[in-house]
Design goal:
heterodimer; A: mainly alpha; two-stranded antiparallel ribbon; B: mainly alpha; MetI-like fold
């Protein structure tokens, strides 16, 4: 009697196992959230030290045009203008997105509307392979093919925004393409049928119906590609020349936030202004990545198909 | 221009664009393989690298890449399995879950340099692990977790709900249903995701430069004591991987045969990644066939 009573009141072994399982899986998810919070906390606390501990004005940092953190100007302010890198990053990002978008949309239309057979047989695997190529390999090819080519055609050293744009274009193309394909595929079939039934040609249908209906999805794809391009570090660092100067032409050496960051962080001492200001660059990267994220969500919400 | 002509013209242009993309990839692959493969020999794959003389290999870097991949997976697979199970089986549909999903999305979109710098600050500097395999593996884990978690969740969700009902009807708890019924069913999907993630990790360099370090000290492959500094198994030693090696050769330029070594290393890296992709497809299909007897 006693042990039956006990087994009824006490939790069974299985119920305990269930609780443990649920708890462990919850711990795993908490860990991931903690990591995200920790990344923001650490990068922000290091990055903001430039402004709070070293007394640099935000305005001088964001809009200053001279980057030379180890020396000071005539008024004794450190030369930590990040505008050259911000401009460099924005330029390569926008230019590569501008070049990649028509190619991505074209390829996506080809795969979904013109020739789905060739598309899934040839283009799809090609694009999947392009995604898999590591970024250092893109950098190496950029260094040994693109840079000499730019040098031969436009003169100069060949390092610069143009080479960077070209490398990033190839790097973001597959991502943007496959997301655009998804966007086109989600346009309902009866839209196309209705348009064709009205006597529109295939191109008219694509241009006036399919692309219009898929615009939010395509924009998401492009913004996603831009956020990739903005955060790319090594490939771009190998071809852009890493001169922290305001970019004057597309073929003169420039720098991006990521390239200065990867070059500098190992050569500076923790806690000094030279180091803190690099963390501020990382903070800009983090903020931009967050902004891109918000933008993608906003587009998604605005363009929900009703 | 008549609509018919425009249609034909547009079709032509679209064929052109598709052609250009195929040509870009083909020339990329051919270039790397043609430049690199002639230098790839057994000696190149097994000898250590040299920094100021020609004739170095990539033996240690290759081993480091695989070892780092192994350690990273050892850490990240259990965590992402747990997280994926929670999201697909237990997570209530409320704002907390929404917040969790947003956090995962943000983590997956962070630039890998930033993740690497965070790893540098937390493990190398604050935890005083120094440049080491364990620091690198933990940084790569952060980089790997969001994608792997999403993959696990999607694979689990793809399992039909009748399977869960069947498990529960037999008197299994939810946890037992997941571990004994749902996970085996979702295994092909999970495995494919893991292998694709492995390909990504294998080629990652930006997150490793300041966590696993940029030098490859000599290893003694007869020493299997994991605590000895020259042992390949030691997780507290510096470990430059293949991808980092390529970056370093090209950005420092003090290796006389740098271009040929990096071409060879790139070819090996690409072949490894292609192999991972191929394996993912093949194994996924194979296991699916075996388990569903389709």
């Amino acid at each position: 009697m006693e042990h039956i009573r006990e087994s009824l009141i006490k939790k069974s072994k299985k119920a305990k196992l269930e609780q443990i399982g649920k708890f462990v899986s919850f711990l795993c998810i908490t860990l991931i959230v903690l990591v995200v919070v920790a990344i923001f906390y650490f990068v922000a606390s290091k990055g903001l030290a430039t402004f709070f501990d070293n007394g640099v004005h935000l305005k001088d940092f964001l809009f200053g045009k001279v980057w030379n953190p180890s020396s000071v100007d005539k008024q004794g302010k450190p030369l930590v203008g990040a505008l050259p890198m911000i401009m460099g990053s924005l330029l390569v990002t926008f230019l590569s997105a501008i070049v990649a978008t028509p190619f991505a949309i074209g390829a996506a239309i080809f795969m979904t509307e013109i020739s789905p057979k060739l598309g899934t047989k040839i283009l799809q695997p090609v694009i999947e392979l392009l995604v898999g190529i590591p970024s250092v390999v893109y950098g190496f090819i950029g260094l040994s093919v693109v840079v000499p080519a730019v040098r031969n055609v436009f003169g100069g050293s060949g390092f610069g925004i143009l080479s960077g744009t070209f490398v990033l274009f190839v790097m973001i193309l597959p991502t943007v393409t496959s997301m655009t394909v998804d966007a086109l595929k989600s346009v309902p079939r009866h839209y196309r049928e209705a348009s064709l039934a009205l006597g529109a040609t295939r191109w008219q249908t694509i241009y006036k119906v399919v692309l219009r209906a898929a615009t939010p999805g395509i924009m998401t794809a492009v913004v996603f590609g831009m956020s990739r391009a903005f955060g790319e570090a090594l490939a771009i660092q190998m071809v852009i020349g890493n001169a922290a100067l305001m970019p004057h032409s597309l073929t003169s050496p420039a720098a991006t936030l990521t390239s200065i960051l990867t070059m500098g962080i190992g050569n500076t001492i923790m806690g000094t202004l030279e180091n803190n200001v690099l963390w501020s660059l990382a903070l800009i990267l983090l903020t931009m990545s967050l902004l891109f994220n918000i933008l993608i969500r906003w587009i998604g919400k605005k363009g929900e198909m009703k | 221009m008549t609509p018919k002509k425009a249609d034909r013209l547009a079709t032509g242009i679209l064929y052109g664009i598709a052609g250009i993309i195929v040509v870009i990839l083909a020339s990329l692959l051919l270039y790397i393989l043609a430049q690199g493969l002639p230098h790839v020999s057994f000696k190149f794959l097994t000898t250590p690298s040299k920094s100021f003389q020609a004739g170095g290999g990539i033996g240690i870097q290759l081993f480091n890449s695989f070892y780092l991949l192994f350690i990273t997976m050892l850490v990240s697979i259990p965590i992402s399995l747990g997280a994926g199970i929670y999201l697909s089986e237990y997570a209530p549909n409320n704002w907390v879950t929404g917040l969790i999903r947003t956090a995962i999305e943000i983590l997956s979109s962070l630039p890998s340099v930033v993740v690497g710098l965070f790893g540098f600050l937390l493990f190398v500097v604050k935890a005083q692990l120094g440049f080491s395999i364990i620091s690198g593996a933990l940084a790569l884990t952060f980089f790997n977790l969001p994608l792997l978690t999403r993959n696990v969740e999607e694979s689990l969700k793809a399992v039909h709900f009748t399977q869960r009902e069947a498990g529960l009807a037999l008197g299994l708890s939810r946890w037992e249903t997941v571990t004994h019924v749902i996970i085996p069913e979702a295994l092909p999907g999970i495995l494919t995701g893991v292998i694709l993630g492995a390909g990504r990790i294998f080629g990652e360099a930006a997150a490793l430069i300041y966590t696993a370090g940029q030098s490859a000290p000599a290893l003694d492959f007869t020493n299997w004591n994991p605590l000895s500094i020259s042992s390949p198994l030691n997780i507290f030693r510096q470990a430059e991987t293949l991808a980092v090696h390529i970056w370093k050769i090209n950005s420092e330029g003090n290796m006389p045969d740098g271009p040929t070594v990096s071409a060879g290393a790139s070819a090996v890296l690409i072949l490894a990644v292609l192999l991972f992709n191929f394996l993912a497809r093949f194994l996924g299909k194979r296991i699916h066939k075996k388990m569903t007897s389709a």
